[in-house]
Every structure is written in structure tokens, then in C-alpha cells.
Amino acid sequence: MSQLTAKYPPASDRRPRVAVVGGGFAGINAAMELRKLPVDVTVIDRRNHHTFQPLLYQVALAVLSPAQIAQPIRTILKKNTNTEVLMDEVTGIDTGLRQLKLSSGTVRDYDYLILATGATHSYFGHEDWAKYAPGLKSVEDAIEIRRRVLLAFELAERHMVEHGWHPPLNFVVIGGGPTGVELAGAVSDIAKLYMKHDFRHIQPSMARVLLIEGSPRVLSTFPPDLSAKAQKQLEAIGVEVQLNKHVTEVGPNYVKAGDERIEAVVILWAAGVASSPLGRMLGAPVDKRGAVLVDQQLNPAELPEVFVCGDLAHIEQDGRLIPGVAQPAMQMGRHAAKVIAADLASRKRPNFRYWDKGDMATIGRLAAVAKIEWPFKAHWGGFLAWVTWLVVHIYFLIGFRNRITIFSTWAWTYFTFADGARLITGDQRLPGWEESIGGLGQGLAQNPANPVPGGVSAGEEFQHPEVAAAGDGGR
User: Fold this and answer.
1) For the whole model, what pTM was predicted?
2) At how many degrees (to 10) do helices 383-396 and 400-416 cross?
């Protein structure tokens, strides 16, 4: 049906109304392309900002501040004279009446709908794990992860001063995809490089970082040679990679993988995603993730006026599912606008074709892997891949100011090991901390001479080398 020249919107004297739901990569690119057309655009998002998600982990590990990777949607689209922005949340979709129901209680009519609300975390039916193992999809998630990681070191320092020992500083990352690999590498970097001289009584560099992956290799969507390079680089910076292990239980201070129990002060989730629930509101077929099955024009069955883009779309090309990452989302958003332009000009709708330029994942300081498909084909690892990753991500950042500030921040941080945005905000309690010190404290009370596994024994208080030399005066 959508292959034919569409008769949407119905003939009238007014301009077609296009509702874009979601201010991510797909939604923003759709809106930018639509500004060229004689249509009225409404962009709806429950947040007022666009987040550059590939750099969220840099906020989570205190290299960058949230403002450096986020930009107000209104600012991005301020030159779009045909566009309005609403900070609201869609709670219902009536495809028959072509109406959106919003959480504010209002109803918005549309002639075309571009749905690009992305994905959220999936705990595979164990939603109770979320409070112990936060995922990384938003600025709020990144700030919460930053809080937990930094708080673990602060509480260990305080407990060492007060009691002469601290629990093992074990950080467990569940999931060996790009997000998991980036988080594990960044936690290792911040512990072993950036904070190694910041504490007097604990040794951050002794922290353990474990990456648990259920498949035979990390970065399973990458070519095998790049997966091997990624694992080698992770292990070189001290990350313990555990493959073919499926997590069966997550508690306040532990993870169970099979029969093995791993104690942890911080647990991070990067193992699964589920599509936004808005996809199911269309009443169209969805896959097991909740992604909407769409045709080559990005339309669900029997809904040629609706376009589904980004993580929310299930579309295959050359027998393979198009991945839910930034590049396909950007291209889908622009394509939806081009289909609308074809309708307005009474031309045949073009098919969507994903142009794969490659894929990259950063692993740690000056380390990454890159699968390059354009302008040439190559598989790179190490420093060259990291430089490529850096250039590409800065190029795609929205806002000239952000490009300059992020580049200068990275340069200063990476080459001087200077302080990042290491701020702890919000709750000063760490989930699982009381359980960690409770169990180990009882063991030490019974036998104070025994060391704490992976931590510091009650009889062997650690002193920072500079403190040992300078005495109580500090540095």
C-alpha cells in the first residue's frame, strides 16, 4: 500500500501536520530535514534535551559533565521556523483518528507521525534487578552510575579510617556489548589512572573490574578479529573478562553467574535492551523486543502515514537486522522526511537503504576497535582506532560549542590525568554497602588477623606512598 503514491494528508487548505515523537538521533534528524518542507512540525519529548548517547559512559565515569553531551531541543531546532517543541509524554496513539494523547491531558492531531522513542533497559523478566544494577540510557542513568562508582571509593576510604579495613572494591559489569566494554574500560581507567593519588588510606588501583558476557566473545556483533582485539585490550588495562557465563541472580552486593557468587560494591547493567512501549500502541506487529516491524519505507503494516525509526524499528537489509545504533537512526529520520517530501510532490516513495559506514567501540584510554566500511574497508585496534573514534564522535556532536569544549576536556584529561567531573550528588547511601560491611565485619570480629579478600586487612592499613613519606601533614 505504501509503495504507491500516498494520498496523505487528505486534501485541505491547511498545511500537513507532522508529529515527531522523540528527540533522539532519528527525531532530531527528521525535524532538521522537515524544515525544508511546507509542513507544520511538532516535536514531542518528555525531556527538553537531546542526548548524545555514545558519550553517556563518559559522563557516567566523570570524564565529561552532562551539559557537554546534551543540548536543549529548542536550541537545536531554533532555526526551524515551521517547528514547535513540546516537553510532554505520549500516553496513547489513535491511528484511526490520527491523534496523540499526551500526559498533560491534551490531544494532538497529526497527518504524519514519526515515532522515534528509542529503547530502554531489559532485565529479561527480572525487573527487581534494576535497583541493584542500573543501566545506561539517559543522562539520569549516567549521573546515578557516577554517583555509585565514586561513592564506593569514598565509603571505602571512610570505613578504612574508622575501622581499619574496607570491603573488596569489586565492580561488575554485566554484558559485553559496546556499552559494557566501554563502561568496564572506563571504570578501570578511573580507578587505576585518574584516582590513584587521590586517597590517603585506600588504594583505588587495587580495585577489580569484572566484565561478564554470556556469549563466547565480547562485542559479538563485531568481526571476530576485532572482538579478540577488544578482549586483549580490556585485559591489558586490568579488566577481568568472563565469557560464556549467564547471570542468574543479582542482589544488593553480589552477582551469581551459574553457581559462582561474585561480591560487588557496584553492579552495572549492559546486557539487554527493550524497545519503547509506544511501539505496541500502534497495534502493528512487533518482534520479541517490542520493535515494530516496518516495510522498506519505514511504515508499519497498513499505516502509510506512520514512520517508525531508530531502535523502535525492526527492519532487515540483505538478510540482517539493521542495528539500533546512532547512524541507522539518523538515516531513518532523514528518510522519513524524504518520503513525506515525495508524497507532497506526488512522487513515488523511495525505499530506505542503510549506508553502513562502519562501527566503533572505545575500550579505555587511547584504546578502541574500529570496523571501517567507508571510505575504505579496514579493521583497526588500539591508538589508531581510538583517534578515529574521537574524531567521528566530535564531528557528529550537535553544537559547535560542545565540540570545542569536549575536545579540550578530553585533551586535558587524557594527557594530564587531571580531575574530571567527579561530583557525587543526591543520596549518600550506596545500595549493598551495608550488606558488604556487615558480612565481612562479622568475619573480622571473629578473626581480626585474616585479610579481607580483595580488600585490606584490619592489621595492614594501607598508606598512600606520598602520605607515608610526608607523615600526617599530607601533600
Assistant:
1) 0.88
2) 150
